[in-house]
Amino acid sequence: xxxxxxxxxxxxxxxxxxxxxxxxxxxxxxxxxxxxxxxxxxxxxxxxxxxxxxxxxxxxxxxxxxxxxxxxxxxxxxxxxxxxxxxxxxxxxxxxxxxxxxxxxxxxxxxxxxxxxxxxxxxxxxxxxxxxxxxxxxxxxxxxxxxxxxxxxxxxxxxxxxxxxxxxxxxxxxxxxxxxxxxxxxxxxxxxxxxxxxxxxxxxxxxxxxxxxxxxxxxxxxxxxxxxxxxxxxxxxxxxxxxxxxxxxxxxxxxxxxxxxxxxxxxxxxxxxxx
Length: 275
Fold this sequence. Notes:
Shape: globular
Number of strands: 6
CATH superfamily of the largest domain: Uracil-DNA glycosylase-like domain
Number of helices: 11
Number of domains: 2
């Protein structure tokens, strides 16, 4: 039966790296920062070993070859991102693969899976933390009080809800609206990654720390990176405060609007004219 087992992305990557090592390219991936220095030192040693012609007196000055620029080290995580992509994927296929999910404990108390909603070809995707009570009942993302505020934010950008795509990191409501646990995020986030890869938006806005930390793979507080652009799998990502946070802290709305204005500039949008 072992011969029928499908290789995991990490096993595929490890097989490729072993192949590169057989070709004597292992150092290219594991120690690229020192390769230039070693090459320069080798060229210097070879130059010293060449005997000088008898008719000439050679000065004992040693010429040091220029060190080539250091290439960035390729992170294994970025290679795994490529391997994790599903060729020819669609939102319907991702939803079908998710199925009636029981992969983590969140399924025990959920009413409905909240997969996502909106334009499958959207240029802008909003990613939240997880469904709340109203979302769990209706099976749609951001339909409660925070969802109404998100709708106002989208309309202020000159868009409609049906123009964008909205989803969450976890697809089932955490009990009492608690923050999703790390293992729950790890179990559910691959479906989020597939959603984003399929839509391929021009911009992603993470609503709150949980979404930003899941996509950026960080544990930093959102206050450290809110309002800054990041590269995420060939698109631009920005984090801002969650609408639920704004309901508790209305003074932060001005900060969020500044963030959304950057997104609008990136997408070439004009704000809705006030009546």
